[in-house]
Amino acid sequence: MDPPAVARRTARRSATALAQLHLAGLDFRGSRANALSVDGWRPLYEHLQRARANEVQRDLEAVPRGRARASRSGPGRGDLPEGVIHADLFPDNVFFLGDKLSGLIDFYFACTDALAYDVAVCLNAWCFETDHSYNVTKGQSLLQAYAAVRPLVGRRSATRCRCSRAARPCASC
Questions:
Q1: What domains does the chain contain, in order, with CATH numbers?
Q2: How many CB atoms lie within 10 A of CB 96?
Q3: Of 19, 147, 165, 169, which is the most exposed, with the fewest CB atoms less than 10 Å away?
Q4: What's the pLDDT score for residue 118?
Q5: How far is CA 116 from the centre of its chain?
Q6: Could you write out the three-class secondary structure of the chain?
């Protein structure tokens, strides 16, 4: 089996399941804030002792300030549809039996936020290679699979990459 083709298929199937999850949650009236969204970064940063951030990675101290500027210049929350999101759909939270997706796990971070945030998490989790390069083919495949179930149209499509930039730049931005 061709490993890149398998990786694209698993990313596509995960995106399909994510879109189905988003549609299934449309009528859910409960709400839970996303502690890891933009609003949660500053308190998290302060909690992790800003003075020692550069010990973890050089120039890390400046990152939250840059992220805050990006969030202020990006779309307003009202511009993006919100709903129930998984918020942690990384490959280790998706089970397959053979070639068939059999389950999603780890809903610990599930919350209410922009659906595009969840798509951005998936792009970052599934479409970067071990050398940290963005796999455009896999990213396009993932987005096409998601859009086949829940279309990304109009402003949602235009703002998709802005959400991804909050986590990591995407090659198509």
A1: 3-167 (3.90.1200.10)
A2: 15
A3: 169
A4: 95
A5: 7
A6: CCHHHHHHHHHHHHHHHHHHHHHHCCCCCCCCCCCCCHHHHHHHHHHCCHHHHHHHCCCHHHHHHHHHHHHHHCCCHHHCCEEEECCCCCHHHEEEECCEEEEECCCCCCEEEEHHHHHHHHHHHHCECCCCCECHHHHHHHHHHHHHHCCCCCHHHHHHHHHHHHHCCCCCC
pLDDT digits (tens, 9 = 90+) for 53-106: 777 777 776 665 555 444 544 445 567 899 999 999 999 999 999 989 999 999
Evaluate if pTM is beyond 0.90: no
Q: Are 74 and 155 in contact (CB under 8 A)?
A: no
Give per-residue pLDDT as tens, 100-150: 999 999 999 999 999 999 999 999 999 999 999 999 999 999 999 999 999
Contact assessment for residue 137 and residue 97, using Cβ atoms and an 8 Å cutoff? no
- Its sign, for the CA torsion 126, 130, 133, 137, is negative
Give residues with Cβ within 8 angstroms of 120, minimum separation 6. 160, 163, 164, 166, 167
CB 126 within 8 A of CB 91: yes
The amino acid occupying position 85 is I
